[in-house]
Design a protein that fits this description.
The complex is a heterodimer of chains A (309) and B (517). Chain A is an alpha/beta fold and 309 residues long. Chain A contains 13 helices and nine strands. In chain A, strands 1-5-4-3-2-6-7-8 form an eight-stranded mixed beta barrel. In chain A, a hairpin with a 5-residue loop joins strand 3 and strand 4. Chain B has 517 residues and is of the alpha/beta class. The chains are: A alpha/beta (309), B alpha/beta (517). At the A-B interface, helix 2, helix 3, helix 5, helix 10 and helix 13 of A face helix 1, strand 2, helix 2, helix 16 and helix 17 of B.
Chain lengths: 309, 517
């Protein structure tokens, strides 16, 4: 590969770096899974790892590397197709279709919920009000929003067009089951009501679960601790029930890793949340709103639990 | 009923694309149900509930796309499936993955089309200035649709354009008609002798539409972007547009449109107007009549007046009727009889920003207090955009409303929820709405709003009130959406369709005032 120019990777997820460190030079790491304007996803040869290369502007997420030069990245994306191989070449360098990406000087990103401060923000009803007002005023309407709104405000008269939407009632039913299971002090099958529910690449139900589970995980919600013991079973249940990209987002979440905006929101839940909420909201088209709805529902349950105890 | 399910393997689309498409198709006549979604297990379960889970769909994985439709006839079914394919394919093609040659940079675009002399740039703000600079360096005019470009970048780009005799329309420029081609949001209007320069998107649409309706046409409609007349930019592109139209043989009359410029910029523009060899109409909403007329230009306080004055200058023989006709007066009288005597409010829910500003200016001029999210005066600024108080006019295309959603000109149904909210408020007497037709706009804006309008009226009636709805359709008979059909749809719901935004606003105001003017 002498003479081939290599481009610099700016930032890399810590766990991905560790995974790569176990690979040998020359190893095929996997193949291109899907190509978007700002992100390329790769699936490992054994199908157990999804990792991605993204433009610098994209929100840092588990399994992600971000590049410096957007134009070079964009030029590469225009010729990539699913199935093209990705290899480890030279010293900490990836090769995809004659494009080399060097991660030897990349900044390492730590996305573990466990890495956040042990001193948790105080749970307060006022924070929930702030969060809900923000979602109400700024949230994208296409995903779980209407069900979330109807769930929070049963007197809200649901517009006819929303009622006709085939996703509205299933989302509402999922929210009701979630609350029922909490009342019964045992989380059982509510996740199955959300996984893969919604139209897009990361269905709204999965984004909602990510926000919900991450919040409970961070605040060590007792019922979630029980659920956590069934992590492997849950992962198995999620597999095949949603898109690949979304499955890995949920898998990372169950393993304690979420995107940087969600982490930032969790650790700042005791102050003025506006900028953190806005950062989450900006993810995807409806994903950010759906995640915030998950955080909101989880936070409500944390308040209820605090009051009970 | 006929139904069909189609699977596309490994086809990824984002939620907004799929949701907007499903919502659009579901509103079509003859369509019972349409689902366009990724084939996850949950989505397949939902299909089963509506008896659309075929064997092929059952086999599809979460990485495949399902298109499922129930329609009243086989023909309708095939039409709809084809339309969905077309929409998804065109989205893909726009993203550079279609059959057409696609490019990623200005340079490669120019290699593919060496004779191009204009670049339309719509990329995230952080790259927009760089791409625009590249285009200018290649001697191309620029239409910069992107917003949130810094004012420093805007100034630098416009100075660069001026030095090289090139236009920089924008940033945040939504409308232009160049050599009879509509760019971004624009209406299909006749060619003629009036040239326009505007720092306003729907303002430019409204004036060109009204010129067309009066039976005349335009040469060029140049957009400058909303900030061109700010102090720091200095009206660089409006001045350049004025000069270009002055030198254009086909242009006989020049019309300038904007919200009020910064005083120093106004002086600069009016100085150039005073030296212009062609008649000029200046429509600065809330502008300074005396200052404009002192330089020999005609001043227009409203958009329709700008169209009328432009036409009158072009053809002194023309007679333009500005009076309120008998039909309007009769409708207003009948509606007023149904409205309560207690003070009641106008609630304006607009897709067009300048149409909101024009309505604000007109209502204020009648002595009524009004609140809006486009207001410049502190006392008129709305405190909480989620809650209307008194006469309230909302530009629902503003960033506060569009976050995570398409612009309401693209997806007007996003306004429906607010229509119901306002209808439920006992203080609401009149809903004032606009609908935009033309390139870039929704294919059936009236159709996707109809249910909400009917429901709004019903809910008010059930609460013992009458709700008047006054609307304006900014469009021509040549626009692809079929103006007549749009008008009929609104009228079928008891909505009054005025012939201009100004007239719609005046009617709304008459309805809530004590006396019919």
């Amino acid at each position: 590969m002498a003479g081939m120019h290599s481009y610099q990777i700016k930032q890399i997820d810590n766990r991905l770096l560790k995974w790569l460190s176990h690979k040998q030079i020359g190893d095929q790491l996997g193949t291109v899974h899907s190509v978007f304007d700002k992100v390329v996803n790769f699936i490992s040869c054994d199908g157990t790892t999804l990792f991605s290369l993204a433009e610098n502007k994209v929100v840092q997420s588990p399994g992600m590397m971000k590049v410096f030069g957007n134009e070079d990245f964009s030029n590469m994306c225009s010729v990539l197709k699913p199935g093209i191989t990705i290899r480890l070449v030279g010293n900490q360098c990836l090769e995809i279709n004659n494009w080399q990406w060097d991660f030897s000087n990349a900044k390492v990103w730590e996305g573990d919920i466990a890495s956040l401060s042990c001193t948790k923000p105080e749970i307060a009803a006022s924070q929930l009000v702030m969060m809900n007002d923000f979602i109400q005023n700024h949230g994208a309407r296409e995903g779980i929003f209407s069900a979330w709104k109807s769930f929070n405000d049963p007197n809200w008269e649901v517009p006819e067009a929303t009622r006709k939407n085939i996703y509205f009632l299933p989302f509402l039913a999922g929210l009701k089951q979630l609350v029922e299971e909490i009342k019964e002090k045992r989380l059982k099958t509510f996740t199955g009501k959300f996984v893969g529910l919604g139209v897009g690449l990361t269905p709204s139900g999965d984004d909602f679960l990510t926000g919900l589970l991450a919040t409970w995980q961070y605040f060590e919600f007792p019922l979630y601790k029980e659920l956590e013991t069934q992590r492997a079973t849950l992962q198995q249940e999620f597999k095949g029930r949603t898109t690949d990209v979304s499955y890995f987002m949920l898998k990372h979440c169950l393993e304690g890793q979420v995107n940087e905006t969600l982490l930032d929101l969790l650790k700042n839940l005791d102050g003025d949340l506006t900028s953190q909420l806005q950062q989450v909201l900006d993810i995807g088209s409806t994903s950010g709103t759906d995640m915030l709805a998950g955080v909101s529902v989880a936070y409500q349950e944390l308040i209820n639990h605090k009051e009970e105890t | 009923m006929a139904s069909k399910v189609v699977i596309e393997n490994n086809a990824y689309h984002d939620s907004v694309t799929l949701m907007s498409l499903s919502s659009k198709i579901n509103s079509f006549e003859g369509v019972e149900q349409a689902v366009v979604s990724m084939a996850t297990q949950m989505n397949k379960d939902l299909l089963e509930n509506i008896n659309l889970l075929t064997d092929e769909a059952q086999e599809a994985t979460g990485n495949d796309l399902i298109i499922a439709v129930i329609a009243n006839t086989d023909e309708r079914l095939e039409e709809v499936i084809e339309l969905i394919h077309d929409e998804l394919t065109s989205k893909k093609a726009k993203k550079g993955k279609g059959k057409d040659q696609t490019v990623k940079t200005v340079n490669s675009a120019l290699n593919a089309m060496p004779d191009a002399n204009m670049a339309i740039i719509s990329v995230p703000a952080e790259y927009a200035a760089r791409e625009a600079r590249q285009a200018l360096k290649k001697d191309m005019h620029v239409m910069l649709f992107s917003d949130n470009v810094s004012i420093e970048d805007e100034k630098a780009l416009k100075e660069m354009g001026r030095e090289n005799d090139l236009f920089v329309m924008g940033p945040d420029c939504g409308t232009a008609i160049i050599n009879n081609g509509g760019l971004c949001f624009a209406n299909k209007v006749s060619e003629g002798g009036i040239g326009l320069v505007a720092a306003s998107g729907t303002g430019l649409q409204e004036v060109t539409v009204q010129i067309d309706r009066l039976g005349y046409g335009i040469t060029q409609a140049i957009g400058t972007g909303g900030r061109d007349l700010h102090e720091s930019i200095g009206g660089i592109m409006m001045l350049q547009g004025l000069k270009a139209l002055e030198n254009d043989e086909k242009t006989k009359i020049i019309t300038l449109i904007s919200k009020p410029p910064a005083p120093s910029v106004q002086d600069k523009i009016l100085k150039e107007v005073s030296q212009c060899k062609k008649p000029v109409v200046v429509c600065f909403l809330d502008g300074d009549t005396q200052a404009v007329e002192s330089v020999g230009a005609a001043f227009s306080p409203t958009l329709i007046d700008a169209a009328r004055k432009s036409v009158e200058l072009l053809d002194p023989e023309v007679k333009v009727d500005t009076e309120i006709n008998e039909d309007v007066a009769a409708w207003v009288k009948a509606e007023k009889a149904k409205l309560s005597d207690s003070p009641q409010d106008i609630r304006g829910l607009f897709c067009g920003g300048t149409l909101t500003s024009e309505a604000l200016s007109i209502i204020r001029s009648t002595g009524e207090s009004v609140k809006s999210n486009v207001a410049k005066k502190a006392e008129e600024k709305i405190v909480d955009i989620t809650e209307s108080t008194g006469h309230t006019l909302l530009d629902m295309g503003d960033d506060d409303f569009t976050k995570g959603n398409p612009h309401p000109m693209i997806e007007p149904s996003l306004r429906n929820e607010r229509i119901i909210q306002e209808a439920k408020d006992p203080k609401t007497a009149v809903l004032l709405l606009d609908f935009e037709l033309g390139f870039g706009s929704h294919e059936d804006p009236a159709g996707v709003t109809l249910d909400a309008l009917i429901s709004a009226k019903d809910q008010a009636e059930q609460a013992g009130r009458h709700l008047s709805i006054v609307s304006y359709i900014c469009g021509t008979s040549k626009d692809k959406q079929d103006y007549q059909q749009q008008q009929k749809k609104l009228q079928s719901a008891g909505v009054y369709v005025a012939n201009s935004n100004e007239m719609a606003t005046r009617i709304a105001t008459m309805l809530v005032q004590k006396e019919v003017n």
